[in-house]
Amino acid sequence: MINKLIDNIRKTGAPIVAGLDPMLKYVPEHLKVQAFEEYGETMKGAAEAVWLFNKEIVDNIYDLIPAVKPQIAMYEQFGIEGLVVYQRTVNYCKEKGLVVIGDVKRGDIGSTSEAYAIGHLGKVQVGSKVCKGFDEDFITVNPYLGSDGVKPFVKVCKEEKKGIFVLVKTSNPSSGEFQDRLIQEAADGNGTASRPLYEVVGEKVVEWGADCMGDSYSYVGAVVGATYPEQGKVLRKMMPKAFILVPGYGAQGGKGKDLVHFFNEDGLGAIINSSRGIIAAYMQEEYAKYGAEHFAEASRAAVIAMRDDIAGALEAK
Amino acid sequence: MINKLIDNIRKTGAPIVAGLDPMLKYVPEHLKVQAFEEYGETMKGAAEAVWLFNKEIVDNIYDLIPAVKPQIAMYEQFGIEGLVVYQRTVNYCKEKGLVVIGDVKRGDIGSTSEAYAIGHLGKVQVGSKVCKGFDEDFITVNPYLGSDGVKPFVKVCKEEKKGIFVLVKTSNPSSGEFQDRLIQEAADGNGTASRPLYEVVGEKVVEWGADCMGDSYSYVGAVVGATYPEQGKVLRKMMPKAFILVPGYGAQGGKGKDLVHFFNEDGLGAIINSSRGIIAAYMQEEYAKYGAEHFAEASRAAVIAMRDDIAGALEAK
Fold first, then answer.
1. In this complex, do B146 and A179 lie within 8 Å of one another by their Cβ atoms?
2. Contact, A76 vs B113, CB < 8 A?
3. Is B295 helix (H, G, I), strand (E, B) or coil?
């Protein structure tokens, strides 16, 4: 699947992933009216509104981008009905040829991580039959529990040729609270050496991924926020074979020129996520002219602008 | 809800939570046959088998225990159908008067954590209506993203009088890989001070919970594994008002006598989880006499033994 992601990036010339993180406040009024007329102001109505929104956006941008990243929390907030639409969105995007990165940030102790891994990336044995669950292509994984919490995901990645992105340095303002804390290493001749926790985690990403390589990159990638370009530079060098999923473009602050160091010399190695910046483009001044009726065309324009911004920055590198 | 948890513990004399983490291999053959006859060897059939299993266990132990902790991964592995049974289990246990701790280990950046928080503990606005999602009483939360990833959960806890348990020191063998790493603090006169990451997180738990107190304990608790009693002792003192959820009893190794230091002088402050040890008791030599047909009676016997083990250890303290 890492090979397919790279193929898709080459085909589109866009190392971009569209974050399908639909809050109800982003969904234009006419879609909400349509969904609520059919299902009422219920969880099912909300989920249907999200589905109509997602579908129209995907239909308008799927030819421009290699991948989408639905954020499961935005579906889970609507309970079972929301998760039904998460599943429908995953399936639909795969039918459209997109790589689907499930932003689920799961992670637990070994046997429990195994259940998440088979439920999202693998297959589950039911009696004599083998069934598939959510069946994303990639998912994001939280490393706080350590190797035995991450390795069950790596095992399923190997079996299924799928992938994970491990949280290393997240894009949010307080990510440094724990991730930047200086870890005391064995003292050397000149006193005590130390380095931030995210580097310790980054080193583990390399270790976990060493044994499951696609043609040029590992099945095990990392999440590093666009909002921390300096840390991105260090982590890029530390994890040369790890694809980096970079959230935080646009709405969270990062721009193309800040992101060039997330890429390797081969022009690959990073995929930049934008969520609000794409799916709620019509709510921004820049794309307001499209109006709520043509929200998905605004999304398309935002994808093109983002693609060109990143391509320009990479050329100027 | 922390007050209800404490009331329930006092009523039952058992600071115990039963982990409803049903792997299909724990479900007795006759229930699988029954479920597969109705729904086939499908995700729905698997989920139904899990439901039959859960219901019979809950019916046999609900009067003995204050709370249950369904592990959502074990349901999520069966996709939507599994999550439907997760929801049914949550609802059923609440009807039985049990406090439900959803072991979901969610955590993300601010706006996304907010979606998880309202989906699991709060309410979601749909048009003019207010709807509820999974509606557990407590959930577990992963702190790796820092304060802005945790505070949205705390906010909903305040509004709903519900609670969270933040992962501080987990029970798994490699939990130390990151959680035990020594964090370099500001140097004092005698050189560089340092302490493990789990203490830094524990300190934050105190801070997050200070402002949302029940009668005697905070809505914000912590997860500390039974398998690390020495760390438990330190964390107990550091977080006097935090209830500690202690996984790892029995199958993972901990026993009553190892756990006394997780409790405060008031005999409260900790709730010990056992999953396999209770729900798969009939598969252990000790309870084999019950047989697969009477698996839920074996669970009852295991709960009574666990209650007595912990009560004995607390008396001897």
1. yes
2. no
3. helix
B103-142 burial, b at 16+ Cβ within 10 Å, e below that, comes to bbbbbbbbbbbbbbbbbbbbbbebbeeebebbbbbbbbbb
For residues B140 and B101, give the distance between their C-alpha atoms in angstroms, rounded to a whole number: 7
Over pLDDT 90: what percentage of chain A?
92
B87 in contact with A, Cβ within 8 Å = yes
Q: What is the DSSP secondary-structure string of B154-187? A: HHHHHHHT-EEEEEEE-SSGGGHHHHTPEEE---
Q: Does B162 touch chain A (CB under 8 A)?
A: no
Integer distance in angstroms from the first to the last C-alpha of chain B?
Answer: 28
Paired tokens of A314: 């990479």
* Helical (H) or strand (E) element with B189: none
The predicted structure's pLDDT at residue B188: 59
Residue A119 and residue B76: Cβ atoms within 8 Å? yes
**What is the dihedral angle through the alpha carbons of B172, B173, B176, B177, rounded to the nearest 10 degrees?**
-110
Tokens of B116: 């998880």
Which tokens sit at A280?
Answer: 């709620």
**Which pairing describes strands A138-141 and A163-169: parallel, antiparallel, or unpaired?**
parallel
Rounded to a whole number of angstroms, the distance from the CA of A70 to the nearest CA of chain B is: 12
Q: Which two tokens stand for residue B202?
A: 């524990």
SS3 category, B15: coil
A191: pLDDT confidence band, cut at 50, 70 and 90?
low
The pLDDT of A112-122, averaged and rounded, is 98
Task: Determine the residue of chain A that is closest to B127 in CA distance.
Answer: A41
For the stretch A155-169, pLDDT in tens is 999 999 999 999 999
Average pLDDT over residues B25-53: 98
What is the number of other CB atoms lying within 10 angstroms of the CB of residue B156?
Answer: 23
| Min Cα separation A274/chain B (Å) | 14
Angstrom distance (rounded) from CA A13 to CA A25? 31
pTM comes to: 0.97
Q: Which two tokens stand for residue A68?
A: 């989408």
Query: Using H for helix, E for strand and C for coil, what is the string for chain A?
Result: CHHHHHHHHHHHCCCEEEEECCCHHHCCHHHHHHHHHHHCCCHHHHHHHHHHHHHHHHHHHCCCCCEEEEECHHHHCCHHHHHHHHHHHHHHHHHCCCEEEEEEEECCCHHHHHHHHHHHCCEEEECCEEEECCCCCEEEECCCCCHHHHHHHHHHHHHHCCEEEEEEECCCHHHHHHHCCEEECCCECCECCEEEHHHHHHHHHHHHHCCCECCCCECEEEEECCCCHHHHHHHHHHCCCCCEEECCEHHHCECHHHHHHHCCCCCCCEEEEECHHHHCHHHCHHHHHHCHHHHHHHHHHHHHHHHHHHHHHHHHC
- Contact call for A116 and B23, based on CB within 8 A: no
